[in-house]
Design goal:
alpha+beta, Maf protein, 5-stranded antiparallel sheet, 5 helices
């Protein structure tokens, strides 16, 4: 998405233990994870840079749904999304490594699903690595798209990087 936005960038992996950081509130959890990633990466960056760190979880019916731990958990998520909207919650932290100034914010969108038939779930699981997707779904999947009733918020936020927010933070920090 950063490439689509016209930015040159380098991907770095923080290697933090995300499971060691726990909060029941998806807004608090995603910002805590974004901050922990930034704190781990800043000391590794030796020249002036704008560092973007983020995390996303799905809130559903009062529970946090992260990346599924098993195929059965992914199936359970997909079977139940029609009962309540899936709220994608992003925690974004943008840090100027030269000044140490950091801007952060949550952004969320809601995805409302129709019931997803079992054969569609089977097909989706065959073609998609759900273990890479918070909440076990991808709105860009042609298989799932017919079962998305509507989205409240931005598609970018559902995919995982709210472009307008990131652009604004970069502009304020440069």
């Amino acid at each position: 998405m950063l490439q689509e936005m016209g930015y040159e960038f380098e991907v770095m992996v923080s290697n933090i233990d995300e499971k060691a950081i726990r909060f029941d509130d998806p807004y608090q959890l995603t910002l805590a994870l974004a901050f922990a990633k930034a704190d781990a990466l800043v000391p590794q960056i030796l020249e002036h840079a704008i560092l973007i760190t983020a995390d996303q979880v799905v809130g559903w019916n009062g529970k946090i749904r992260e990346k599924p731990e098993s195929e059965e958990q992914a199936r359970d998520y997909l079977r139940t999304y029609h009962l309540a909207p899936a709220e994608t919650v992003n925690g974004i932290a943008v840090t100027n490594t030269a000044t140490g100034k950091r801007l952060s914010q949550n952004e969320a969108s809601k995805v409302f699903f129709k019931p997803i038939p079992e054969e569609v779930i089977d097909e989706f699981l065959k073609e998609t690595n759900v273990f890479n997707h918070a909440g076990a779904f991808s709105i860009t999947s042609p298989v799932l798209q017919p079962y998305i009733a509507h989205i409240e918020g931005t598609i970018d936020s559902v995919i995982g990087l709210p472009k307008d927010l990131v652009r604004r933070f970069i502009g304020e920090l440069e």
